Amino acid sequence: MSDFSARVEAVSISGIREVFEAAGEGAINLGLGQPDFSAPEHARRAAIEAIRDGRADAYTENKGISSLREAIAAKHERDQGLDLHPDDIIATAGGSEALHIAMEAHVESGDEVIIPDPGFVSYDALTKLADGTPVPVPLRDDLTLDPAAVEEAITDDTAAFVVNSPGNPTGAVSPPEDVEEFARIADEHDVLCISDEVYEYTVFDGEFRSPAEFAETDNVVVVNSASKLYSMTGWRLGWVHASSRRIERMLRVHQYAQACASAPAQFAAEAALTGPQDQVDEMTESFRRRRDIVVEGLEDIGLTVPTPTGAFYVMPEVPEGFVDECLERGVIVVPGEAFGAHGEGYARLSYATDEESLREALDIMGDAYDAVV
Ligand code: PLP
């Protein structure tokens, strides 16, 4: 008998961490996937009050407190016109757990899961942990996921495909007609579409649409999270919404693995969802400004860079040795291959950092580029 399961041996610790560890002290970190804002003040206050009043001491319902689930349903009604029942929502420990329970509940041993390549690191790992086989689909040149490529990759073994718009690591937003296509594919092929919408609020050009708006079957599971919507990564509060039968299956995993999401975080997220939304606009505006600075700076350096339309990442094509040269000179960027084989030749930069550091980093990256070409 081996010490560890084959499933866990099939995954490794994310390559992103290795980059951080290789960097010297004082490096400018363009590797981090978190907004550099505080959580909204009213969200923090709601958690403090819940703790002070003794309302956050006990387990909550497995799915989460009903007032939070009502706030999530109201958010999706407000933003997408969806008519969700609060019982068809599970509050989770971030979008990460939401993705995990979606995979565990729907992927059988040997099933295939179609994932974007390059794509967020968890899709490959969570598929393997569910004993499935990831099927990476290369993105288009503009770094969006091509519905035709997804449809072509479907086999009799396909359990699900993952859509992530706005995307990590690309910053690309799928146009509405593609989102509609994803819903049609899920309906017609009877495969599950796992729609990871955690960057929903960070869209600069175009508009955010969810496959859940278009699907005629219940073949869409939506993952979202307070992490990036409200700059609350540390609170660990996300959610999943789907049909009752899918929620019931995902709850079986959530109940045994997690019992319930952290109670103080649930109160904070409820306040974030129901309170003033000005911080969301401020964050988006600030990311848009920084996006412009970074894209212009990278183009001036001579790099080819698809202009990101959302999230806070940019993925330029980079020459060999560029990432290491940046690291050596004190700027942390993540090699594209950390996000899949087709990420090779790219680097991911997060611009969730202040403008002064961004400008300094661009200068250094210019020198790094000159040193390697
Ligand atoms: N999905 C995507 C695309 C992400 O980039 C992340 C985090 O970086 C997550 C999900 C998970 O976020 P969290 O668990 O903090 O909600």
From TrEMBL:
Per the UniProt record, which EC number(s) apply here?
2.6.1.-
Superkingdom of origin organism: Archaea
Residue spans making up a coiled coil are none
Keyword annotations for this protein, in alphabetical order, are: Aminotransferase, Pyridoxal phosphate, Transferase
User: Looking at the keywords, is Hydrolase present?
Assistant: no
The Swiss-Prot or TrEMBL record lists the needed cofactor(s) as: pyridoxal 5'-phosphate
Group of enzyme by EC: transferase
Question: In Gene Ontology terms, what is one molecular function of this protein?
Answer: transaminase activity
Indicate the segments forming the Aminotransferase class I/classII large domain, all copies: 27-363
Which family is it part of?
Belongs to the class-I pyridoxal-phosphate-dependent aminotransferase family.
Q: How does it assemble?
A: Homodimer.
Q: What is this protein called?
A: Aminotransferase
Recall the taxonomic lineage recorded for the source organism.
Archaea, Methanobacteriati, Methanobacteriota, Stenosarchaea group, Halobacteria
